[in-house]
Amino acid sequence: PPSDSPLEDSDPQDSSLTPRHIMAEPDYLDDDNPELIRPQKLVNPVKTSRNHQDLHRELLMNQKRGLAPQNKPELQKVMEKRKRDQVIKQKEEEAQKKKSDLEIELLKRQQKLEQLELEKQKLQEEQENAPEFVKVKGNLRRTGQEIAQAQES
Q1: Compositional bias (Basic and acidic residues) at which positions (predicted)?
Q2: Is residue 92 part of a domain?
C-alpha cells in the first residue's frame, strides 16, 4: 500500500521525496578515502556530568507526575527582592518630598538669610580689598556728613 508520508521511502526512484537528497552529501560519507578525518560530535562536559544527569532525570520525573518545582530559582528571588526594596525606597523618597507648608516656609526664610549673609561677606571683602585712598575718601565723607549733622542740630 502507498504511504502518505513523504519521509517513508516507498519508491526508491523518486528521490525528490526523501530529505537526504535535498542537500549535497559531504565527502566524508564515502569510504573510499581513508586519509580524510571524519568529524566527531564534541562531548559536552556539563551534560555528561553525573549531577546534571541526576537533576535532569528528577525534573523529567516531576514533570511527568505533574509536580512543579516549589522553590523559585535564586535569580528570580533576588530580582523580586530588589524590586521590593526599590519600591520601598521610592515610597520613602516621596514621603520626604511631601513637606508641610511650615517646612517649606522655613526653608525659604533660611535661604534668604543665607543669601543676605553672603552679600554682607562680599561687601566686607570688597571694602577690605579696596585700595587705601578709597578707604580714606570714604572716611572723609563720613566725617563730613557727621559734622554737617552736628551743625544742623
Answers
A1: 74-100
A2: yes
